Amino acid sequence: MSDVLTRLAQIISEVVGPDFLLDVEITRETTFSDDLGLESIEFVALADKLRAHYDVDLVGFLADMDIDEIMAMSVGRLADHIEMAAARG
Amino acid sequence: MSRYLFVVPPLTGHINPTVSVGAELMSRGHAVAWVGHPGTLAPLLPAGALVFPALDDEVERRIQDARVQWLGLRGMAVLKFFWEEFLIPLGHAMVPGVTEAVSAFSPDVVVADQQALAGPLVASRLGIPWVTSASTPAELVRPLQTLPKVESWVVELLSSFAGSDIRFSPLLVLVFTSPSLVPGAFPPHYVFTGPALAGRPGGSFPWEWLTSGRRRVLVSLGTLNGAAGERFFGEVVSAVASLDVQVVMVAPPGAVSAPPNVLVASSVPQLDLMPHLDAVVSHGGHNTVCEALAHGLPLVVAPIRDDQPIIADQVVAAGAGIRLRYARVRADEIRTALLDVLDSPSYAAAARRVRDSFQAAGGAVTAADHLEAVVA
Fold first, then answer.
1. What is this model's ipTM?
2. Taking the domain B207-359, which CATH number applies?
3. By the CB < 8 Å criterion, does A42 face chain B?
4. Chain A positions in Cβ-Cβ contact with residue B76 (cut-off 8 Å)
5. Which of B2, B123, B166, B278 could be disulfide-bonded to B108 (CB atoms 3.0-4.6 Å)?
6. Which sequence ranges form a coiled-coil region, renumbered to this chain (chain B) (predicted)?
């Protein structure tokens, strides 16, 4: 696991509550929509944490996606985006 | 005298406002009819109401089966299914029946619920004025504006169904809430009437169960989500078992094992119950939320899907309640939130401000005034 992926898994765990992830291992393939079933209030909490930790705009990242891309949005894809944003500085 | 035809989906929450508005129109001497699923309409309408069928029981059953499948979905899949597998097919299914109802009843105005897409389509084809009944205000606030590709996907679906975006009538949009919950600037033909609650049939309830001197709370997940709510109901029971409150929980029989201070009923006469309550725990269905606020009751809202997160945020912004998560909420969070809305006077005070705004908006009387003006 990359550092970003490990940290992202921690952030997600903080957002949903670690005891709800006992039987879910967060991998690159884990989707926010179906696997995690992120509620909108949790999505807002995730966006806040990503902004604080990485200066990444989650809403802006999703704004360019169609409905199928949003449904398929995975932890791995977000991790790649965070790494690319960091590389661009 | 004018003739009004209400076009409604097989959904209680969307039929309810039309029942009150229809009753007000009838009391003024107008002719009123409904077109939709007769089996869903019958228990909600006054006896003798004129109903035209647009969905037979088999089609309605298929729609309900699809809804059960839809209840199992999460995230964006809910929205995709809602439009592609529910709203658009429902619109197509209702077109023949709505067309026949218009021919048979010859309405001056078609009043179409925002989720009965056949209404605007048929009315436009036949050159009859049509009005939007927005039983939830969620579409008014453009919930998908941060996702422009998803928003334009919805408009494309509507355009391929009806040739244009038919969510809002160019003549009159009846919105059953008030600007205290939905601030913002809207076109002048958008009329905020507040909830239309009068003229609905009641029901029975074991009133003797309510004891004086104790605070009372209603817990309801509405008519569509109740069966899927067992985890939530269980957390609520754990949250309230040790509290000195009486809880009326609308839940399927056997969903929870209830302690003595919790009464579980599969349905309750919700409007009749409201004056006896101190707070409401809800999924954020627009009808239940507005019924609670119309009685000045603070809310704890745990939205599940659809427009519910938007409604929940409106309640929070008005200061009239607390929003919780639904799928992962814990008993202690529910207990803390419930005690907060019961004990902190600010929530009930804000709820009473919303109640006053509803009363000023005029409800079914205002809606009927504007519907008369469409014909005049």
1. 0.89
2. 3.40.50.2000
3. yes
4. 33, 67, 70-71
5. B2
6. none
Task: Considering the domain delimited by A3-88, tell me its CATH architecture.
Answer: Orthogonal Bundle (1.10)
Q: Which of A16, A64, A67 sits opposite B76 (nearest CB)?
A: A67
Summarize the confidence of residues B194-214 as an average pLDDT. 88
Classified by CATH at the fold level, domain B3-171 comes out as Rossmann fold (3.40.50)
Shortest Cα distance from B219 to chain A (angstroms)? 21
Mean model confidence pLDDT for chain B: 94
DSSP B210-262: S-TTSEEEEEE-HHHHGGG-HHHHHHHHHHHTTSSEEEEEE--TTSSPPPTTE
Domain coordinates of chain A in residue numbers?
3-88
Q: Name the strand (E) or helix (H) holding B3.
A: strand B3-7
Instruction: List, by residue range, all CATH 3.40.50.2000 domains of chain B.
Output: 3-171, 207-359
Among B41, B169, B161, smallest CA distance to B101 is for: B41
Residues on B contacting A at a C-beta cutoff of 8 Å: 73-77, 79-80, 146-150, 153, 303, 309, 323, 325-328, 330
